[in-house]
Design a protein that fits this description.
single chain, about 200 residues, mainly alpha, elongated
Length: about 200
């Protein structure tokens, strides 16, 4: 396998773009080569196969969609209350919106994992790790609510992000006077997270 890390990263990012735009069926080495603007056959020198490419896309998406350490530090300076949880959820929504391509690719990975047992196993471990990390972060930060709060919040905000990035009209006006998606974040947190 070729060892140029910059070229590999560019190919993985091209894979993310192809996955988001074309879905898993369109994710071919030829399509990745075209998206990366490299000669045909380049991707096959960097990945052992499609499963390898998908695993590397998974790892890359976790980096692309991760919180900015500076934003995290700034938020952590605030009181540990419901408003801080709301701020974290707004940041999560903003990251997903800014990297819409990355988040759509993540959704495609979920769909592809339903068809590919090997990917399902590795992707389940990856996503479960994210959830466990969120639960542990919530505990360590002393935020209101417990593990159940974090789990329900996770499910609700994932649903909001899914609608916002795929069919935003579904939520528009469903709660009169509540803007989407930002106002929905406020409502979700208020419904799930205790005040203290």
């Amino acid at each position: 396998m070729a060892g140029n890390p910059e070229r590999r990263a560019a190919l993985v990012d091209a894979g993310v773009a192809v996955l988001a735009r074309e879905g898993a069926r369109g994710l071919t080495f030829r399509a990745v080569d075209a998206a990366a603007g490299v000669p045909v056959g380049t991707a096959s020198n960097y990945f052992t196969g499609r499963d390898d490419l998908l695993r590397q896309i998974d790892a890359r998406l976790h980096i692309r969609l991760a919180p900015d350490p500076e934003v995290l530090a700034r938020l952590m300076a605030r009181p540990r209350d419901r408003t801080l949880v709301t701020a974290f959820m707004h940041d999560l929504l903003a990251r997903a919106t800014r990297d819409r391509t990355g988040y759509l690719a993540l959704l495609e990975m979920r769909l592809e994992a339903t068809r590919r047992p090997a990917l399902r196993d590795s992707f389940t471990r990856s996503v479960r790790g994210d959830l466990e990390e969120a639960v542990e972060f919530h505990r360590a930060a002393g935020l209101p609510g417990g593990d159940e709060t974090v789990t329900v919040l996770y499910l609700a905000v994932l649903g909001l992000i899914l609608e916002h990035l795929t069919l935003p009209g579904v939520l528009h006006g469903v709660l009169p006077g509540v803007g989407t998606p930002e106002g929905m974040v406020e409502r979700i947190v208020a419904a799930i997270v205790p005040e203290k």
